[in-house]
Amino acid sequence: MKIEKASHISQPVPLSTCTLIDTYPGHQGSMNNKEVELYGGAITTVVPPGFIDASTLREVPDTQEVYVNSRRDEEEFEDGLATNESIIVDLLETVDKGDLKEAWQFHVEDLTELNGTTKWEALQEDTVQQGTKFTGLVMEVANKWGKPDLAQTVVIGVALIRLTQFDTDVVISINVPLTKEEASQASNKELPARCHAVYQLLQEMVRKFHVVDTSLFA
Question: Where, by residue number, does the polypeptide cross the bilayer (predicted)?
């Protein structure tokens, strides 16, 4: 598979931080998440129940795996998620940055630029495994369909998994469009419970990320 090159984007903006609680109240964690095969079974990780493979609905680039939330309002799940989150796994060329955090920031800038903005702030940052895995939670105001009058506050969980032996950066992003009430709460550095649940999901996806077939990178 031909790995895509990450876009060259602007200088990182200043960051501010917000402390997350360790556990989302009532969150059942990994007991409900299901293992999925990505890229024809070459990679495995987990996704929550009720998320479906977007390639069954529309065309998805070869380097991406996309899962969308198909839950209905009347359905009950114990993981803290709602009905409008989406998950993207993307295989990109390794970016030439000084350290893993800088590379993570580069990929975050790339994501936010695609959403029509260059302004974002980090709410949480964690090194999961020194030199190879970094996760974070960021907030941005995205211009929906490129229209500023349709701007929406979005929280994104972003993970970078560096596969040095394959010159590949795996970027996992979980998009969380906030309601007006949630956006107001987040602007006061009080993250909605859903954001905590998303960050726990992101970290579990990283922990359970496994390369099964290395020929994917040939």
Answer: none
